[in-house]
């Protein structure tokens, strides 16, 4: 029997199912890869916000990772919520010994504005995690958190990408979904410092966008697991997440999730 490509997510849980590990695994399934998981934290979370966070011990994270990679193997890894310096350092060490492309989503805050990364962990992200990344995928708030660059234009996105690349990832994907200068257009930039690709898609008037960043990063990882080069993987991921945002639906009393199964329902 043919087996699908193997993709591992190292991230926190979202009990509401819109982001985190749950979003990653749904995305991987939708894109034809076998998703595996290393849980870093448990959150009590719903459409209104994050009501509690419980970080797992570093030894539990290490044991999960080794159990999967040493037995099953992996063709791409995606990291998400790593809430403390200890977890960032632990995961960076594990990635250093893994011969697979890595997508680092430097999760800093939730869709509702809840902090998901301790300030004390920022130096570890910059100095230990980002150098392991094939692609780093910060949104505009995370760019500012990591580099101090405030993005208000496409030129700022270039400056932000250069600043992120300065920490060592091979490629930077600057997610411009929150950039309002383009009105009805959502603009992203992916670059390795030598070549750049601008990705443009309609900005849908839909408030139900919970999980967008996790979904995009895990879609990029799915493409890399299938053997795509970075620009092609990012382009395919952008197309997928654009459709998922357009089909996002109400859930609970707050912000609902994007629809990871939108292609099946289309």
From TrEMBL:
Per its UniProt record, what SUPFAM superfamilies does this chain match? Ribokinase-like
Per the database entry, which stretches of residues form a coiled coil?
none
Recorded GO MF terms: kinase activity
Reactions that this protein is recorded to catalyse: 4-amino-2-methyl-5-(phosphooxymethyl)pyrimidine + ATP = 4-amino-2-methyl-5-(diphosphooxymethyl)pyrimidine + ADP; 4-amino-5-hydroxymethyl-2-methylpyrimidine + ATP = 4-amino-2-methyl-5-(phosphooxymethyl)pyrimidine + ADP + H(+)
The protein's superkingdom reads: Bacteria
Which part of the chain is the Pyridoxamine kinase/Phosphomethylpyrimidine kinase domain? 14-259
Pathway involvement of the protein, from the record: Cofactor biosynthesis; thiamine diphosphate biosynthesis; 4-amino-2-methyl-5-diphosphomethylpyrimidine from 5-amino-1-(5-phospho-D-ribosyl)imidazole: step 3/3
Return the CDD domains for the record: HMPP_kinase
Which keywords fit this entry according to its UniProt record? Kinase, Thiamine biosynthesis, Transferase
Identify the InterPro entries for this entry.
HMP/HMP-P_kinase_dom (IPR004399), PM/HMP-P_kinase-1 (IPR013749), Ribokinase-like (IPR029056)
The UniProt function text for this chain reads: Catalyzes the phosphorylation of hydroxymethylpyrimidine phosphate (HMP-P) to HMP-PP, and of HMP to HMP-P.
Q: What is this protein's name? A: Hydroxymethylpyrimidine/phosphomethylpyrimidine kinase
The organism encoding this protein is Streptomyces cirratus
